[in-house]
TrEMBL record:
<keyword id="KW-0472">Membrane</keyword>
<comment type="function">
    <text>Part of the tripartite ATP-independent periplasmic (TRAP) transport system.</text>
</comment>
<keyword id="KW-0812">Transmembrane</keyword>
<protein>
    <recommendedName>
        <fullName>TRAP transporter small permease protein</fullName>
    </recommendedName>
</protein>
<dbReference type="GO" id="GO:0015740">
    <property type="term" value="P:C4-dicarboxylate transport"/>
</dbReference>
<dbReference type="GO" id="GO:0022857">
    <property type="term" value="F:transmembrane transporter activity"/>
</dbReference>
<dbReference type="InterPro" id="IPR007387">
    <property type="entry name" value="TRAP_DctQ"/>
</dbReference>
<keyword id="KW-0997">Cell inner membrane</keyword>
<dbReference type="InterPro" id="IPR055348">
    <property type="entry name" value="DctQ"/>
</dbReference>
<feature type="transmembrane region" description="Helical">
    <location>
        <begin position="45"/>
        <end position="63"/>
    </location>
</feature>
<comment type="similarity">
    <text>Belongs to the TRAP transporter small permease family.</text>
</comment>
<dbReference type="Pfam" id="PF04290">
    <property type="entry name" value="DctQ"/>
</dbReference>
<feature type="transmembrane region" description="Helical">
    <location>
        <begin position="125"/>
        <end position="144"/>
    </location>
</feature>
<comment type="subunit">
    <text>The complex comprises the extracytoplasmic solute receptor protein and the two transmembrane proteins.</text>
</comment>
<keyword id="KW-1003">Cell membrane</keyword>
<keyword id="KW-1133">Transmembrane helix</keyword>
<keyword id="KW-0813">Transport</keyword>
């Protein structure tokens, strides 16, 4: 059995985001129970961390070949057409992630340029938005790695 490829930095980032979300939520619940009020910043920070967790988890799933796909056609095709299909799938993923990276970077730059502040904490909005293009670029790299590994046979098609 071949060892599964790893995405350790993304795993750590996702785990850290999950732990912080849990601590923030626990602190907010305890505060609301004891005082009847809640922290104003928790929703803003939790939503941001949930986006980070989602993208980090998606990058891990890409690297480990764990994304859901229908493999019926792949399994039915012989060698060369199957490789063409895998390459097509990889190129489609790269195109989508490239667009997310490009437009996410433009959006973060605009927020930086406009000096927009977040509604809850009043910090620059681009602090939250810059993670979108960064993590989608990481996913793009993981997509290329996965496609390469599937084409060369280093990664089994059935996880």
């Amino acid at each position: 059995m071949k060892p599964s490829p790893d995405a350790r930095p993304e795993r750590w980032l996702g785990a850290l985001a999950l732990v912080v979300i849990a601590l923030i939520s626990l602190g907010n619940v305890i505060t609301r129970y004891l005082t009847g009020g809640s922290f104003a910043f928790t929703e803003e920070l939790s939503v941001f961390l949930l986006v980070v967790l989602t993208f980090a988890g998606a990058a891990v799933a890409l690297r480990r070949n764990g994304h859901i796909r229908i493999g019926l056609l792949e399994r039915a095709l012989p060698g060369a057409p199957r490789r063409v299909l895998i390459l097509f799938q990889g190129l489609c993923g790269v195109a989508v992630l490239g667009l997310i990276t490009w437009f996410g970077a433009r959006m973060a730059w605009q927020e930086y340029h406009w000096e927009s502040l977040s509604p809850g904490l009043g910090v620059p909005q681009w602090w939250y938005l810059v993670w979108l293009p960064l993590l989608s670029a990481v996913m793009l790299v993981r997509q290329v790695q996965q496609t390469r590994d599937r084409l060369t046979g280093r990664l089994e098609d059935e996880p």
